[in-house]
Amino acid sequence: MTSHVIPSYLSGDALGPWGVFLQQIDRVTPYLGELAFWIESLKRPKRILIVDVPIKMDDGSVAHFEGYRVQHNTSRGPGKGGVRFHQGVTLSEVMALAGWMTIKNAAIGVPFGGAKGGVRVDTRGLSLAELERVTRRYTSEIGFLIGPDKDIPAPDVNTNERVMAWMMDTYSVNQGRTSTGVVTGKPISLGGSLGRHDATGRGVFVVGQAAALKQGVSIPGARVCVQGFGNVGAIAARCFADAGAKVTTVQDVSGTIHNPRGLDVRKLIEMQLAGQHIVEYRDADRITDDEFWSVESEFLVPAALEQQITAANAGRIRTRILLEGANGPTTPEADDILNANGVLVVPDVLANAGGVTVSYFEWVQDFSSYFWSEEEINKRLDRIMGDAFAAISETAEREKVTLRTATYIVACKRVLAARQLRGLYP
Ligand code: NAD
């Protein structure tokens, strides 16, 4: 394995998720021909901004949170990527997430570079007013770096439509004009797109269908396990259940529930909307979070956080198709184990690209102030995801590589060809 220089701004010797991204780039390099000349440009982010986010708490005290915005690469277009609020956010994580956005946007063919943002904050400890103040101060601090033709944030873990509305408003107030196109994933009434809320989960299901065809797996009756029951996991689970699959096991921060006869996914979503935890669902057994990985299934959908599937649990996984709803859920060592065990891994940069695809539709609609029907959006989304899966599958077969490496081949060639054409300035 190539050894990497640790950037001075990453402390200690642990590269964390960024190290995983670097390993993935190393794996694709031999397949890039003369474009490999430019590969170093993917191994360092273009821009990193670290900001202090001070806010007044409801009790009158002042709290400080660390915020980040990383633009990994803008060779093919403005930066694009979500904003995460989580107590575990680190610079290494945001760098990796930004890098994965570069790959994803190129793989799916939307005209964006890769970016990502985050604030290290435990949102469970914040009131709604405090959450709003964190969002607005963070947006102001990164305001000079973002913009509809510069870098366009979107929702990620613990951020949603309401947070996007605050971001759009803060940016607009500071600019002195309403700028709907600065973020995507907004409420419909503020220039959001129909279909955006469900897009990532729906896209996971669409590539799941294509993968099932490839593996000879029938969706009706297929057993599905889902880790993370948020925007991505819950919608993917609902799509599978609607198509006749049995969602047998669901895990979120509150715990893991299992019923071999299948869980009522719509009921679980209703419970969540009513403020209940999934572990309060009656018609299921509680199993430990670790047992989740040994449950037999046709589809396993990690849709929570990165580095969940490692060398420690990959060998126990008994599934046919691993659909990566989350970003970076599988380490390279785990990837090797899963491939050796015959599990088809559909990588994050392909499987969860539905969100950014409809974000792209939202951005286009905001520019033209002309909005499409949900039917039109879903039709275009299904076609783009289906075509991307087919092209990447074909590359995987031709080059005799995994779907992950094939996705990186397609994406890196596009990014590096753009880099080469633009040349270096001066
Ligand atoms: P979310 O905040 O809506 O949901 C996250 C879910 O993960 C919650 O159910 C939470 O309980 C669960 N979770 C958190 N920590 C966990 C843990 N340690 N163990 C088990 N469950 C845990 O977030 P989301 O938007 O659904 O994002 C989930 C993943 O999908 C992230 O990796 C994100 O980067 C990725 N993703 C999201 C989008 C999007 O459009 N929202 C697009 C592409 C990729």
Question: Would you mind describing this structure in some detail?
Answer:
With 426 residues, this protein is α/β, with parallel strands linked by helices. Among the domains are: 45-178, Leucine Dehydrogenase, chain A, domain 1 (Rossmann fold, 3-Layer(aba) Sandwich), CATH 3.40.50; 199-351, NAD(P)-binding Rossmann-like Domain (Rossmann fold). Helices cover 41% and strands 15% of the residues. It contains twelve helices and 13 strands. It has helices spanning 16-28, 91-108, 128-141, 161-175, 196-215, 231-242, 265-273, 332-340, 348-351, 354-368, 374-399, 403-422; strands at 47-56, 62-73, 79-80, 83-86, 114-120, 151-152, 223-227, 246-252, 255-258, 285-287, 299-302, 321-323, 344-346. The strands form three sheets. A seven-stranded mixed beta sheet has the order 10-9-8-7-11-12-13, sandwiched between helices. Strands 1-2-5-4 form a four-stranded mixed beta sheet. A two-stranded parallel sheet has the order 3-6. β4, α2 and β5 form a beta-alpha-beta unit. The model has no long low-confidence stretch (mean pLDDT 96). Nicotinamide-adenine-dinucleotide binds next to α6 and β8. The site of nicotinamide-adenine-dinucleotide has 23 residues, from α6 and β8.
The small molecules bound here are: nicotinamide-adenine-dinucleotide
CATH architecture descriptor name of the domain at 199-351: 3-Layer(aba) Sandwich
Rg measurement, Å: 21 Å
What is the name of the CATH topology of the domain at 199-351?
Rossmann fold
* Proportion of residues in extended strands: 15-25%
The N- to C-terminal Cα distance equals 33 Å
Helical amount: 40-55%
Strand-and-helix sequence, N→C? Answer: HEEEEHEHEHHEHEEHEEEHEHHHH
- CATH C-level class of the domain at 199-351 is Alpha Beta
Uncertain ranges: none
Mean pLDDT, to the nearest integer, reads 96
Largest sheet features = 7 strands, mixed
